[in-house]
């Protein structure tokens, strides 16, 4: 029983580390500057 709990904790930590890695990668690869969107609501401009 104790070994299963250890595997569960290690698995949860691995999932958290992978999730944070993906989040940081996506944030770092986003272009800096101005974002323009044109849709049914009109034109919107956002500074990053």
Structure description:
With 48 residues, the chain is α+β, with helices and mostly antiparallel strands. The chain has one domain. Helix content is 58%, strand content 25%. The protein has 1 helix and 2 strands. The protein has a two-stranded antiparallel ribbon with strand order 1-2. The longest helix is centred in the N-terminal third of the chain and has 28 residues, at 2-29. The model has no long low-confidence stretch (mean pLDDT 88). The chain crosses the membrane at residues 6-25. Keywords: Membrane, Transmembrane, Transmembrane helix.
Strand content: 25-35%
Tell me the count of domains.
1
Strands across the major sheet, in which order?
1-2
Overall geometric form: elongated
Number of strands: 2
Average pLDDT across residues?
88
- What is the C-alpha radius of gyration, as a whole number of Å? 20 Å
Would you identify the regions where 5 or more consecutive residues have pLDDT less than 50? none
How many DSSP helices?
1
- Cα-to-Cα separation, first versus last residue: 50 Å
Helix and strand sequence: HEE
Structural class: alpha+beta
Q: Note the main sheet.
A: 2 strands, antiparallel
Helix content range = 55-70%
Protein name: RsiW-degrading membrane proteinase PrsW (M82 family)
Transmembrane segments: 6-25
Keywords: Membrane, Transmembrane, Transmembrane helix
């Amino acid at each position: 029983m104790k070994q299963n709990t250890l595997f569960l904790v290690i698995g949860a930590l691995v999932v958290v580390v992978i999730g944070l890695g993906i989040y940081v990668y996506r944030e770092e690869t986003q272009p800096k500057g101005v974002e323009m969107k044109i849709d049914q609501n009109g034109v919107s401009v956002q500074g990053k």
